[in-house]
């Protein structure tokens, strides 16, 4: 019934299987990819015709993780997969970026690539497998895809590269790098590193490419068995005459426009040239007008690229390795915990850092279950930043991707959570953009954290590199402009500290680059990062030693795990009371680590003292601050150490006779007490009279010691019962006072067992 085609290979210690012909047979191409026990299905469909007037390539990639793949039911009210999560959006981009440049120019048929995770073993990450499945499905679909590509993840630990490590191994190592490539050249790089050298990073890319070649060969083997007939499309370029005509008409205008350094003025000059071309073709067919617009873009690219390669002349007059002017300002927003305004040429970002408690952590619900992140970076790109009108609202895929890139750049230098137990959120609002706003976010985000007092290990800067490649001749551009990005062949971003690289991202718009170009770009980027870092330190060289007065303070306290229940109380009663009374937040983990947070230092101190009072044992002879919580006829009960109560007997209030307890203390009064005795049952006897109530210093006990009672001998009288059997009174012990039943200076009635009357 099924004409199943399959290839298998051993890869990274597990069997990689690519299968087609059994599932999704109505799609143009469908591949079921299995690695370990992780399974991803990718289906590709393509429109057979182009919409009228369309002049772009509508490729859409969707990656979806099915919760059932990990034996889980989604959380929330609806209990089903909803909109794309951040991870799904990022993986969709990860697939799109290396695939898109491999379609021929002029191919505008709509293509849909849908990847779904059907099984997840908890070890083999599905993102790499989805990229391989997508490439295989495109390769066998018959569409004009100049692949295949494959992908690999590389880790680095103890000087050794690791192929496709799981997330636990990645966390223990120093590198998480994803590479996509054809059999001949690298197409895409995405990474996070713990300040590694350029040599280690380049070695990781080359190591990944060697492994990728093996998978590309397996995809080719599958295509030889199952590929559909290639589409017959006419992509011949017959626009040479139109290009020559446009060059004669507006070539000089375009060249002059690209010599204007100001972006707005340059844009106006280009628009005038385009208007002249549009007027020239006003009477032509709509299709001809559309083609003319495309040809003009090619003409612009040709003029700009030629000037750079021949004369080293960039659009704004800089040399190929020159960085635009940089200005950094920190602390310019008064109520934020940390802020920075970073401006590089015509690119600008307002970055703020907000510190929060554990309650502010981001909850992430994924295939691995619930997890929490205490570091967030959110990037916004409003349309006014490029002088345009447009959609303003929820972040799109590009904004999510740029934010994650900056997140990867800064994450490796954050302090350990035990040393700095805060949730950190960086917000980057791009207010101007003309080239690499994501790297401006890295620089501004780093400065805002330093301004907030986050003790980062080393400051981080970032730079965007470009490439102009014509045959064997190439030029690497530092700190590219937006136009250089659009007209160039590479978008290569590198961020790191003075010690090494923390992230590296590369996207190629041509069919890959060579090792020589990659090495040259890394070397030039290192020089640029150092220059930018030097400019940043002019604003702030190291993290501030004090937090903002508006930021919460967090103090930690380690308690015995057996005391956790006492601090929380039945149904959380005790901890809620602590929070309500002090105004501080209190968090306790399963190991007994208590975090107390508040922007008010006094609230933190009060909460910590309360908790200490619950978990610590009172010491005999030590003086404590306390509060009178209850008054009885024979004394007052005083709460001290937050959670302990003891009795100050009326005789221990002053060194003189006290007629009424209320003559000395009132409920709620703050007093200083000394612990006199703790009986085996934990009852505490306190004294006020031996403590100076003003200073808290211990006073000398001036009261004379109590003399022992004299032996009064046998009682006399006819009622005595002597040993001789005579009738007498039983010996009942010492006779009780008249005040024994509860007088103000009375005896022992109703008192704890260890209390006696002096």
From TrEMBL:
- Co-factor(s): Mg(2+)
Please give the chief subcellular localization of this protein: cytoplasm
In this protein, which residues make up the domain named S1 motif?
A: 621-689
GO molecular function terms here? Answer: polyribonucleotide nucleotidyltransferase activity
Which CDD domains would you find in this protein's record?
KH-I_PNPase, RNase_PH_PNPase_1, RNase_PH_PNPase_2, S1_PNPase
Which sequence ranges form a coiled-coil region, renumbered to this chain?
none
Q: Which InterPro entries match?
A: ExoRNase_PH_dom1, ExoRNase_PH_dom2, ExoRNase_PH_dom2_sf, KH_dom, KH_dom_type_1, KH_dom_type_1_sf, NA-bd_OB-fold, PNPase
Start-end of Basic and acidic residues biased regions? 701-728, 734-743
Q: Where is this region: Disordered?
A: 692-758
**For binding Mg(2+), which residues are annotated in this chain's numbering?**
485, 491
Catalyzed reactions per annotation:
RNA(n+1) + phosphate = RNA(n) + a ribonucleoside 5'-diphosphate
Enzyme Commission number? 2.7.7.8
Q: What class of enzyme is it?
A: transferase
Q: Keywords on this record?
A: Cytoplasm, Magnesium, Metal-binding, Nucleotidyltransferase, RNA-binding, Transferase
Location of the protein in the cell: Cytoplasm
Described by its record, this protein's role is as follows: Involved in mRNA degradation. Catalyzes the phosphorolysis of single-stranded polyribonucleotides processively in the 3'- to 5'-direction.
Please state which protein family the record places this protein in: Belongs to the polyribonucleotide nucleotidyltransferase family.
NCBIfam families found in the cross-reference section: polynuc_phos, PRK11824.1
HAMAP family in alphabetical order? PNPase
Name under which the protein is recorded: Polyribonucleotide nucleotidyltransferase
Q: Which organism is it from?
A: Sphingorhabdus arenilitoris
The organism's taxonomy opens as: Bacteria, Pseudomonadati, Pseudomonadota, Alphaproteobacteria, Sphingomonadales
Q: Which gene encodes it?
A: pnp
């Amino acid at each position: 019934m099924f004409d199943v085609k399959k290839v298998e290979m051993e890869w990274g210690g597990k069997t990689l299987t690519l299968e087609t012909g059994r599932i999704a047979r109505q799609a143009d191409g469908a591949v079921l990819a299995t690695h370990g026990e992780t399974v991803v299905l990718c289906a590709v469909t393509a429109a057979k015709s182009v919409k009228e007037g369309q002049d772009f390539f509508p490729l859409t990639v969707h990656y979806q993780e099915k919760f059932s793949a990990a034996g889980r039911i989604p959380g929330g009210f609806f209990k089903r997969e909803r909109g794309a999560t951040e991870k799904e959006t990022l993986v969709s981009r990860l697939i799109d970026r290396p695939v898109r440049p491999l379609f021929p120019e002029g191919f505008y048929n709509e293509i849909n690539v849908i990847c779904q995770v059907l099984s997840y073993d908890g070890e083999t990450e599905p993102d790499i497998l989805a990229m391989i499945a997508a490439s295989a499905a495109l390769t066998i679909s018959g569409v004009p895809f100049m692949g295949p590509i494959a992908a690999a993840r590389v880790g680095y630990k103890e000087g050794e590269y690791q192929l496709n490590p799981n997330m636990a191994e990645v966390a223990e190592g120093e590198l998480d790098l994803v590479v996509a490539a054809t059999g001949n050249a690298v197409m895409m790089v995405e990474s996070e590193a713990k300040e590694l050298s350029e040599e280690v990073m380049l070695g990781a890319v080359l190591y990944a490419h060697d492994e990728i070649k093996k998978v590309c060969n397996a995809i080719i083997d599958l295509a030889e068995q199952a590929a559909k007939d290639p589409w017959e499309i006419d992509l011949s370029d017959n626009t040479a005459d139109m290009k020559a005509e446009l060059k004669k008409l507006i070539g000089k205008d375009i060249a002059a426009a690209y010599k204007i350094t100001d972006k707005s003025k340059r844009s106006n000059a280009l628009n005038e040239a385009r208007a002249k071309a549009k007027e020239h073709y006003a009477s032509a067919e709509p299709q001809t007008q559309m083609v003319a617009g495309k040809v003009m873009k090619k003409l612009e690219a040709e003029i700009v690229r030629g000037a750079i390669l021949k004369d080293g002349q960039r659009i704004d007059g800089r040399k190929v390795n020159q960085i635009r002017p940089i200005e950094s300002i920190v602390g310019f927003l008064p109520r934020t915990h940390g802020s920075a305004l970073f401006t590089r040429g015509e690119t600008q970002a307002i970055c703020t850092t907000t510190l929060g408690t554990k309650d502010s952590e981001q909850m992430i619900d994924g295939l691995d279950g619930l997890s929490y992140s205490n570091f967030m970076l959110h990037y916004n790109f409003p349309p006014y930043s490029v002088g345009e009108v447009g959609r303003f609202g929820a972040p799109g895929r590009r904004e999510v991707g740029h934010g994650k890139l900056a997140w990867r750049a800064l994450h490796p230098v954050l302090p350990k959570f035990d040393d700095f137990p805060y949730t950190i959120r960086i917000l980057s609002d791009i207010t101007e953009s003309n080239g690499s706003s994501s790297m401006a976010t890295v620089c501004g985000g780093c400065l805002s954290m330093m301004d907030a007092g986050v003790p980062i290990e080393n400051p981080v800067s970032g730079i965007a590199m470009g490439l102009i490649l014509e045959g064997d001749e190439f030029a690497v551009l530092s700190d590219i402009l937006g136009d250089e990005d659009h007209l160039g062949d590479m978008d290569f971003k590198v961020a790191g500290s003075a010690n090494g690289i923390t992230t590296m991202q590369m996207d190629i718009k041509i069919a890959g680059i060579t090792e020589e170009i990659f090495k040259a770009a890394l070397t030039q980027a290192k020089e640029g990062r150092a220059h930018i870092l030097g400019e940043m330190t002019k604003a702030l060289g190291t993290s501030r030693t004090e937090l903002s007065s508006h930021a919460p303070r967090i103090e930690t306290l380690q308690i015995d795990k057996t005391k956790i229940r006492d601090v929380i109380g039945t149904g959380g009663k005790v901890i809620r009371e602590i929070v309500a009374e002090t105004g501080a937040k209190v968090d306790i983990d399963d190991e007994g680590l208590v975090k107390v947070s508040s922007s008010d230092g006094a609230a933190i101190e009060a909460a910590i003292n309360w908790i200490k009072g619950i978990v610590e044992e009172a010491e005999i002879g030590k003086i404590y601050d306390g509060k009178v919580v209850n008054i009885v006829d024979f004394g007052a009960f005083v709460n001290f150490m937050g959670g302990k109560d003891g009795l100050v007997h009326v005789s221990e209030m002053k060194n003189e006779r006290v007629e009424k307890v209320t003559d000395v203390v009132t409920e709620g009064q703050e007093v200083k007490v000394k612990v006199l005795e703790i009986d085996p049952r934990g009852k505490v006897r306190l004294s006020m009279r031996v403590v100076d109530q003003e200073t808290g210093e211990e006073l000398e006990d001036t009261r004379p010691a109590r003399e022992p009672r004299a032996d009064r001998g046998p009682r006399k009288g006819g009622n005595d019962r002597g040993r001789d059997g005579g009738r007498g009174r039983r010996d009942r012990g010492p006779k009780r006072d008249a005040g024994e039943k509860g007088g103000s200076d009375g005896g022992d009635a109703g008192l704890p067992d260890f209390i006696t009357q002096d």
